Amino acid sequence: MDLIKKASEFEKRKMKSLSTSDRVKISREAKSLILELNKVYKEKKDEKIMDTMKRITAIKRKVEKRLKGAPLTA
Question: Which top-rank group of organisms is this from (predicted)?
């Protein structure tokens, strides 16, 4: 399956020393991958697909956390 291969390549990608625009691209790519995987998961109910979605979501959250920055303290 091409989508699973694409997702595994995304997971293996280097995520260090990224610019802001790179982080935005990664976040958008992760979102589209998750949505595509979700469509396939609804049909097949394969746990491997769900695990892949969870791992990509974790990467996406990590990148978005860095994009938004740390909350200001009073």
Answer: Bacteria
What's the predicted TM-score (pTM) here?
0.80
Tens digit of pLDDT for each residue in 13-59? 887 888 888 888 999 999 999 999 999 999 998 899 899 999 999 98
Do the beta carbons of residue 37 and residue 49 sit within 8 Å? yes
The CA distance from 41 to 57, in Å, is 15
For the chain, how many residues are written?
74
Query: CA dist 52 to 18, 19, 29, 45, Å?
Result: 23, 25, 14, 13
HSE-up of 28 (CA within 13 Å, CB side)?
6
